[in-house]
Each structure stands twice: as C-alpha cells, then as structure tokens.
Amino acid sequence: MTLVIYPPVEDRRLDMICAAATPMRVVNAQSEAEAAEALPTAEAFFGKITPEFLKQAPKLRWVQSPTASLEHYMFPELVAHGCQLTNMRGLFSDVIAEQVFGYMLCLARNLHVYLRQQRERRWAPVGGERERSGWAYGPGVVSEIDRAHRHLAGSVLGIVGLGAIGCEIAARGRAFGMEIVAVDPVNPDAWPLDRLPELLAMSDWVVIAAPHTPQTEGMFGTELIRQMKPSAYLINIGRGAILKLDDLVHCLREGAIAGAALDVFEQEPLPADHPLWTMDNVLLTPHVAGYSTLVPKRHPEVLLENVRRFRSGEPLLNLVRKAEWF
C-alpha cells in the first residue's frame, strides 16, 4: 500500500507518519509532478486533493483532509468517488466553545462597555442604582431587554448545528445552568431543522455552529434574524458565509436583536469601513476562535491515528458525509 502526501510535510512529522504507516510506502511528494508519478499506486492520500490528482489515482480508497472545514476542499468528482474522506473536526471544539462563552459573559456583564469606559477613565455603572437596589425589578416595571446586566443561568441557549463544536458549547451551557435547545440535520439529540423558528423565538442567545455547506450558505438573513427575541444576541463562530452581514446590520439598526458577536465573516478581512466596526452592541474578532497552543499537537495525533487505522483495516475517525460537506 502507498500513502501519498502533498503538499509535503516537514521531516519530523514525516518520521512520525512513516512509523505509523509501516509497512506502507510513504511518498512525501515535493512537487505536483512527483505526486502525480506516485498516485497510480496510491491507496491513501493526505493533503490537498484535486480533480487532476483524483483522475490519476485509480486505487485510491482514503483521503485525509488537513482541515476541519471543507467548503474549499470539496468538488463534484470527490463527492462521487468511492473513496472515504476524513477531516480534522474536533481539533478546535473545546477552544471555540470557550470563545463563545467569552462573548456571552462579556455581553451579559457589559464588559465591552466598561472596557471603553476604562480607556476614558470614566466611572459609569450601567443600570446604576436602579439595578443594584433591585426594587425596580418588580413585575411589569421593566422589560427583559431593559435589564442592564444579565445572568446566563436560567437563560435559553439556542445552538444551530450540534456537531462537535455545538456539543462542547452545550456542555458548557449546562454547567452555567442554561437551558439548551439545538437544531441539527443528523444529530438525534437535537431538534430537526424545521424547528429552527421555534428555537429562535425562545432563545436568549443564538449560536451558529454549523458548517458551510450548500444548504447553510446565506441561511441567516433578515427573515431568520427577525424571528429572534429583541433581547437576544446572535453569535457566529460557524462559517462567515452562513450569515448575511448586510441583513445583520439592518436588523441591529432597527433593534430587532440586542447585539451580536462574530468571529467569521462573509468577507475576510472585514473591510475597515464596514458599519459593524462602530456598533457598540457588537463584538468582532478576526477569525481566531480556533486559535490555541493545543491545536498543533492535536493535528498530527488525528492523522497518525487514522494512518494506523487504515493500515490495520479499522474504521477511520472523522468520516465525512461527502454529499453534505461535513
């Protein structure tokens, strides 16, 4: 059996792959031409597969993507091919879940407001005496949206996409005492997608944790956002293409929702003149939710385990539903 790698990996990683693959032959191709030369006998491939490479690999049975997301990886021939495709999902799940709760705690406790005030050396508690004394919060005195500081406990966390990341978010939400609702097309622990309007109507926090697929592209626009509670926040750590930013800006300006936190965007980098930059009720981070010192260690672990499993004829980790891109 032959495993072809392209683009090539560094010597240290190559040594680990060779050890896991033994007695398989490993070709760490230094060029497209070298990869093409080895592909006719290849049964496994790690790296960036292309339609041209696929045509040259009649024996190919397994392709390992080096990424978790697949919107820039999939193509019709790969979907139709009989090979198994695996990806790197799970590497970032707990890391991204922590980012989500960073957003939620910041927005719930107005830390984004106080950071700006700190730079101005301004002491101005949001809500003031009315909130601290508690007397103003009798029945009917103020609506939920008027509460300046919020509790996560007892609030409803709606998760769109209950995959690896969504499950980690849900676990942390339960630890905070939140009620969890979720929609997902395949996870039996979630509601089906046709209950998304119900999720939006009841959630205090809506987190998009879905992958970019043909079905989710442009999914969140004005129609869905307006189905959220006016006191709710929208968080996107899934994929930028899922949320239409022009529609989000419009909904924020009309007060359809309380605010938003985004790590991914339709266009990256987000243009400097985009209105989201100057909105006080919006948190923006530059696609860093998956950053962690843990990830570089986890990446080769997934690859090496799948190499070992393929060599031994065992089921592979992270099998992808190719037609659905996840």
Describe it.
The chain is an alpha/beta fold and 326 residues long. Helix content is 33%, strand content 13%. Helix 11 (245-253) links the parallel strand 9 (233-236) and strand 10 (259-262). It is elongated and about 70 Å long. Residues 135-146 have low confidence and may be disordered.
Uncertain runs? 135-146
Gap between N and C termini, in Å? Answer: 27 Å
Overall pLDDT score: 94
Which outline best applies? elongated
CATH class of the largest domain: Alpha Beta
Helix content: 25-40%
**Total DSSP helices:** 12
CATH architecture level-2 label of the largest domain = 3-Layer(aba) Sandwich
Question: Would you tell me which CATH topology of the largest domain applies?
Answer: Rossmann fold
Q: How do the SSEs run, as a string of H and E?
A: EHEHEHEHEHHHEHEHEHEHEEH
Range of strand content? 5-15%
CATH superfamily of the largest domain: NAD(P)-binding Rossmann-like Domain
Strand order of the largest sheet: 7-6-8-9-10-11
Class by SSE composition? alpha/beta
- The count of strands amounts to 11
The total tally of domains equals 2
